[in-house]
Amino acid sequence: MTTAASGQRFHLSQGGALCGRLRVPGDKSISHRAIMLGSIADGETEISGFLEGADALATLRAFRRLGVEIDGPRGGRVRIRGVGRDGLRPADAPLDMGNSGTSMRLLCGLLAGQRFASTLVGDASLSRRPMRRVTEPLAEMGAQIETAGEDTAPLRITPAAELVGIDYRLPVASAQVKSSLLLAGLYARGQTCVTEPAPTRDHTERMLAAFGCPVARDGARVCVEGGARLRGCRLEIPADISSAAFFLVGASIAPGSDLTLEHVGINPTRTGVIDILRAMGADIRIEAPRDVGGEPVADLRVRAAPLRGIQIPEELVPLAIDELPAVFIAAACAEGETVLTGAEELRVKESDRIQVMADGLARLGIAAEPQLDGIRIQGGRLGTDETTALIDSHGDHRIAMSFAIAALRASGTIEIDDCANVATSFPGFAALAAGVGLRIREA
Ligand code: S3P
């Protein structure tokens, strides 16, 4: 299986407003972790709100191939018969992670501690993404991992004589690396600790606690004990704020919009996009905040508002890392200049999101100047009258959806190429978006 783009195209007519209520699909990061922890837990885990997108399904299929019985997904429900910490079995062929960096990096840590060998492969985009950030610290723990090139998948993991806990300081703020090491740490002798340079999403830590395996936190340092056992549980997965972000931006930039996004996860390690948009002048209200199985959730009401350019605070970058392409569209519609720095990580996502967004914005007539670690965007008028702007998403789901919402403020039509990978994180995007007012057609 691969999730390579098949060339599906979005056609967008300009204008419109976003109104009504909408629940976007389940959180991708949490969906991956639910499958992983449920699989190595003792007893059953029942999940609702699971994201039936290609990335999370790649994780689900991988665990089936590792011998775990998993029912579903059906309407977001999944039931896992956990095999316990030592119950995984070798897969009979390489495990295909498709387009999913989270699957590959987290599984690399988890599989490094098994008594059998595994091979992890991915699509063309994933096979270009840096893996040394996980293989190097895992090797320090004693893991045996071979990469294809210097630094890239396929990854061949062979059984280690023993994994030993380490005390590791992350060179980049990465929840994927942190989580990979914590998962390996469950199989290591002694304690495994990770210190992050800036806060990153903490779903692994929260979910380990929900499975009865508390993670010790002391400031920026988190630690797990080797040998801990997990207990199956019930998990309700909130709607993904990363998917909601397209609508937060869309309703902010489209005059007359008034949209409520229901049951969105507002974990404080994910809400950078709300802080950035509010600093730009957005009208976003957090309604009915509540707690769902250890994760904070709320409804988000967003109404159109005039936006102004800002210097994006660097500490918000890891808290909004996946939402920055959508923020660039907000910046293009804002008055004045928006400046982003400290975001070089964007260059090693599913595409080089700094360059690809700058190219697309230029197509729409926006002055966007890419920098090594960010971008400068001058707000202006999107698109040229009576012509169609053709945007290449480079097979990157978040690029495709960002330019789709840009149409709300464009002066001409927009066509976006290579959109099949939207299904990695947001299956049904076009239909849901059309339902609240986006003038989108798929072909
Ligand atoms: C993710 C972490 C982030 C994010 C990715 C999902 C996760 O990556 O970009 O889409 O689920 O842990 P990094 O931690 O590498 O920044």
Automatic annotation (TrEMBL):
Asked whether the keyword Amino-acid biosynthesis is assigned, the reply is: yes
Show where the Enolpyruvate transferase domain sits: 14-430
Instruction: Show the GO MF annotations.
Output: 3-phosphoshikimate 1-carboxyvinyltransferase activity
State how it assembles.
Monomer.
What does the UniProt keyword field contain? Amino-acid biosynthesis, Aromatic amino acid biosynthesis, Cytoplasm, Transferase
Q: Its encoding gene is what?
A: aroA
A GO biological process of this protein is: chorismate biosynthetic process
Protein name, entry field = 3-phosphoshikimate 1-carboxyvinyltransferase
Membrane-spanning intervals of the chain = none
Q: Which HAMAP family match?
A: EPSP_synth
Record field: catalytic activity: 3-phosphoshikimate + phosphoenolpyruvate = 5-O-(1-carboxyvinyl)-3-phosphoshikimate + phosphate
Superkingdom as given in the UniProt entry: Bacteria
Localization per record: Cytoplasm
